[in-house]
């Protein structure tokens, strides 16, 4: 346990002790943030703490190994390097580090914990994932780096042969799972409660979140999950190539073997002898398309449809949703009526004729709007249908949202990822937009729902909203009610779609994906 001086001293004022040794943090904010957050003085941050050993050398393409202990005090005041394949300015195979933001003034507070997994190409040090704003709501916020691309997902018999479980390919997922265990073992020193962990993320990070829910390796370790733009009906064809998709073993092996052959390296030793640049270049093989989590029967034991039918290892409440203008929705789409009709007929099979009646178009403007509206219907119905399947075997509630606010200064609407700085309450850190008063009000309201969910597994309860008035009530999904909760432009329950539209979307899913994920 860490000791602090004074009844209200912030935890960064002296070192705390974790399993690996002593760690010194820093103040997350200075006085200039006082207008944003009345409790800014209490927020501590620790950056770049190793949660596993370096993945270089013999540890490349191995499950994360125990980090070394250190003597003295680790000055945890700088973000660690990003993992290769990330967008970080500085990358290294010694990248498995964790960052913690805490509002605790005592290690005994047992505050709820929120673990955040970033999207593909991201890194934990990105301003979009700053955790100080969420910490002001009374939540210990954790983010971290994990392996992606070929270093995270390469699947080869030569690597499986040296593994105790005889599996390969899910190194990035094993990093994510290792992080959950690290938090469980160490978060009490930061004022967090190891028995109140919510996993969360957006896009590929939402996939990490859902894999955590479905993995037996985390059974009993988490209390809830937040998946932003990442969970859909297993029959929805857009799930392929989505942040939460995975590859079956035969496909992953074939792809990885072709990749290894392109590098003239087939043995584990030859692969580990390659430089990081050689691994990432991959003789022209994309490091993102194709390298994904793999259905290995270990970290990912079953297809999504099987987990939904049999029950997930973690029956926990889930907050899940999507954005109005993602998944190929384009506000600048140009489409003639004939092109629109041809596209719908080609894509939607037996549902096409009825969809054209529900979404008619007499001119090019209407054609573009109708095309986008069909895609938006898929977004809403797919997540709703996932929730419907979840309730067939699980007792925990699901809260579905539909984000509609368009951030200022752009013409892509409520685009993929646009909700993240609002949900995490960190507009102050994202300086690429000229935020308006309305944006800050939206961020406070949205992040209050998220923080409430982390605290109580219910977005309506937890006392996180401090502005005038109260949060509009957000009902849990009920299979018999075809609704979702709109956030952003308005805050209210809206229909997912008419019964006819829902039936058409499900008909399309079954037609397009006879073998579901």
Automatic annotation (TrEMBL):
<dbReference type="InterPro" id="IPR002018">
    <property type="entry name" value="CarbesteraseB"/>
</dbReference>
<dbReference type="InterPro" id="IPR029058">
    <property type="entry name" value="AB_hydrolase_fold"/>
</dbReference>
<feature type="domain" description="Carboxylesterase type B">
    <location>
        <begin position="16"/>
        <end position="482"/>
    </location>
</feature>
<dbReference type="InterPro" id="IPR050309">
    <property type="entry name" value="Type-B_Carboxylest/Lipase"/>
</dbReference>
<dbReference type="Pfam" id="PF00135">
    <property type="entry name" value="COesterase"/>
</dbReference>
<protein>
    <recommendedName>
        <fullName>Carboxylesterase type B domain-containing protein</fullName>
    </recommendedName>
</protein>
